[in-house]
Write a structure and sequence with these properties.
This protein is an alpha/beta fold. Helix content is 31%, strand content 29%. It is built from eleven helices and 14 strands. The longest helix has 15 residues, at 163-177. The relative contact order is 0.14.
């Protein structure tokens, strides 16, 4: 099966700055493919090149089997794009905006069908500024579908939404994908990437640092759980050494919030075998350190990003 998108050695420079630094990846037909990274990682620039809004400094891109440099107009007719900041006509209703947008393409969906698909069928006669934030995002997705695209590109689609509106949008994205429409999206939300994407590219400072399924990326860490323990006193170097390297133990600096004395909080990574946790607790008991608090969380993409880049991914 032909890839929906093929990116080969893509470079984009702005002066002396490499915004995109020699990245290559493919997007398979019918999948939801995500690009995860912080602001400034090069995600939006990469999408704008795929959309034909910017020209690459170096590299080759094919979209739906067409060379983007040679067949840019044909590509644009077959893809849908939802950008971070979109401006529409202030004095037209939602239905009128979609009808106007449809005239720009060889084929188009009816405004009524589009609004029904995104759950706005009863809003056809109102203006965009009368919608809530979540409804506006749904409308921008409807606008990206106006030309019956085979590939839809969504740039940070849920930014600024409350948790309920965000999850509602995720449901919509899955429904669109179930119509055999390939979706490429960018995000800096770990939960969004893990919930939606079948495969994920992680970008940092313009470079592609990993590409795989979320499950495989998490599996690379060789741990299933992160354990946070707070003791009543710090472990000595001898006590830390007593773990024999079987458990990764990292001392966490105090946040001076009164929750724990300095140097008594530790992070551990454990595999999914119950014996690992039991062994860790037994060793702490042998060392004579009292356990004040224990918190166990599954390893997530946040742990992956921290491992790959050395930085936390923040909103």
């Amino acid at each position: 099966m032909e890839n929906a998108v093929q990116v080969e050695h893509l470079v984009k420079r702005f002066g002396s700055v490499n915004a995109v630094d020699d990245i290559s990846f493919d997007v398979k037909q019918g999948e939801i493919f995500g690009i995860l990274g912080p602001n400034g990682a090069g995600k939006t620039t990469t999408l704008e090149i795929i959309e034909g809004l910017q020209k690459p400094t170096e590299g080759k891109i094919s979209v739906l089997g067409m060379d983007l440099a040679r067949d840019g107009s044909r590509v644009k007719a077959r893809i849908g794009v939802q950008i971070q900041s979109a401006a529409y006509f202030d004095y037209l209703s939602l239905g009128e905006i979609l009808k106007l947008l449809g005239t720009f393409y060889p084929k188009s969906a009816s405004p009524g069908d589009l609004l029904d698909q995104v759950g706005l069928s009863d809003q056809a006669k109102i203006r965009l500024n009368q919608l809530s934030g979540g409804q506006k995002q749904r409308f921008t997705v409807a606008a990206s579908l106006v030309n019956l695209p085979e590939l839809v590109i969504l740039d940070e689609p849920s930014t600024g939404l409350d948790p309920q509106a965000r999850r509602s949008l995720w449901t919509l994205i899955r429904q669109i994908n179930q119509q055999n429409i390939t979706i490429v999206l960018t995000t800096h939300y770990m939960e969004e990437a893990q919930a939606l994407c079948q495969r994920l590219a992680i970008m940092d400072r313009g470079r592609l640092v990993a590409l795989d399924t979320p499950a495989n990326l998490i599996g690379r860490l060789g741990a299933a759980y992160t354990v946070k323990v707070v003791l009543n006193q710090p472990l000595s170097d001898h006590q830390v050494a007593s773990f024999n390297g079987k458990i990764e133990l990292v001392q966490v600096p105090s946040q001076n919030n009164g929750d724990a004395p300095d140097g008594t909080t530790y992070l551990l990574r454990l595999n999914d075998h119950p014996a690992a946790l039991a062994g860790m607790l037994e060793q702490i008991g042998k060392n004579g350190s009292g356990l004040e608090h224990l918190d166990i969380t599954p390893v997530t993409l946040e742990d992956v990003f921290l491992e790959l880049t050395g930085n936390e991914l923040t909103d």
